[in-house]
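Bumping my old thread because nobody answered last time. Still need a sequence for this structure:
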C-alpha cells in the first residue's frame, strides 16, 4: 500500500480539463420579455405602415408575436414577418392563397365604417368571430341603447346559441359588452337613467319594451349562460404551428450585392397506375 507521501499527485490542469468536459452545460438564460414601457417605445418608433398594421391586428395577434415583431431590426424583416403571420393563419383554418387575410380585411373595413374603432368591444368581437347569425339594434326608452348579437355556433366556446349583449353605459357614447356577474346591480346598468330615477320600469323587458322585449330577455339570459367565460370571447385564435419565439431564426435577409448561387429546377412525374 502506498503511503500518502508516495501516492501520485493528480495533475491539477488535467483534472480541471476533465471536470469541464464532463460537467453539464449551463442552461441558456431565457431572453427577458420587453416591459410595457419598452413595448410602447418600440411601437412608437415603428414606421407608420407597420405601426398601423400592428394596431389593426391587435384582436388576433398573439403576445409572443408582438414580442417578436417589436424586436425586429429592419423593415424587410417586418414585411417577412407579416407575410408569415397571414400564412400561419391560413394553415390553422385550412385555407390557402391569403383567404384568411382577405376575410379579415373585409371585417376590418366593416368595423371601421360601422363601429369606428377597432379597439372597441364590438370591433374586437366582429374581427374575431365575424358577422353574427342575427343582430338586433334595440332602442327602448326604458333601457339604455343595446346591440344584441346571436351566433348559431362559436368554435372558441365549443357551444351553440351564443348571445352577446352590448349596451351604452349611462352618460357614455360607445357600446360595451355587458357583464352580468354583478347580478341585480349589473341588470340595473342596462336601465335608462331617467327611468331608474322615476322608477318607471316594471323590471320585465317584455312588458317594458313590447317590440324588442323577447330579444332583450334572450340576450340577457344568453349572457348569463357564458358569464363565467366571457374572457374567451376576446382570446385570439389558437395556432397549431411552430413556436413563434423561434420565428426570428427564419427571418434571414440576404446581404445586398452578393453573388447569387447557381440553381437548377428539376420536375419529375413518377409513373402511376391509371
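Sorry it took so long. Here it is:
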Amino acid at each position: 500500500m502506498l503511503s500518502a507521501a508516495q501516492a501520485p499527485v493528480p495533475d491539477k490542469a488535467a483534472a480541471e480539463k476533465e471536470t469541464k468536459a464532463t460537467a453539464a452545460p449551463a442552461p441558456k438564460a431565457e431572453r427577458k420579455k420587453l416591459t410595457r414601457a419598452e413595448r410602447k417605445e418600440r411601437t412608437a418608433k415603428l414606421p407608420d405602415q407597420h405601426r398601423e398594421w400592428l394596431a389593426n391586428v391587435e384582436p388576433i395577434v398573439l403576445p409572443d408575436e408582438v414580442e417578436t415583431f417589436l424586436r425586429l431590426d429592419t423593415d424587410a424583416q417586418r414585411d417577412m414577418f407579416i407575410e408569415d403571420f397571414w400564412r400561419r393563419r391560413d394553415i390553422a383554418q385550412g385555407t390557402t392563397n391569403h383567404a384568411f387575410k382577405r376575410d379579415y380585411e373585409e371585417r376590418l373595413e366593416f368595423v371601421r365604417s360601422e363601429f369606428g374603432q377597432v379597439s372597441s368591444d364590438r370591433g374586437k368581437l366582429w374581427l374575431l368571430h365575424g358577422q353574427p347569425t342575427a343582430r338586433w339594434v334595440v332602442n327602448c326608452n326604458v333601457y339604455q341603447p343595446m346591440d344584441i348579437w346571436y351566433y348559431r355556433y362559436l368554435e372558441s366556446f365549443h357551444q351553440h346559441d351564443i348571445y352577446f349583449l352590448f349596451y351604452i353605459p349611462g352618460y357614455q357614447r360607445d357600446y360595451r359588452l355587458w357583464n352580468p356577474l354583478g347580478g341585480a346591480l349589473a341588470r340595473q346598468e342596462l336601465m335608462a337613467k331617467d327611468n331608474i330615477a322615476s322608477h318607471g320600469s316594471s323590471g320585465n323587458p317584455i312588458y317594458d319594451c313590447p317590440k324588442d322585449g323577447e330579444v332583450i330577455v334572450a340576450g340577457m339570459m344568453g349572457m348569463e349562460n357564458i358569464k363565467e367565460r366571457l374572457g374567451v370571447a376576446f382570446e385570439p385564435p389558437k395556432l397549431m404551428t411552430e413556436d413563434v419565439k423561434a420565428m426570428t431564426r427564419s427571418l434571414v435577409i440576404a446581404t445586398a450585392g452578393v453573388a447569387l448561387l447557381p440553381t437548377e429546377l428539376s420536375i419529375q412525374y413518377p409513373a402511376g397506375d391509371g
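The chain is about 40% helix and 10% strand. Let me know if any region looks off to you.
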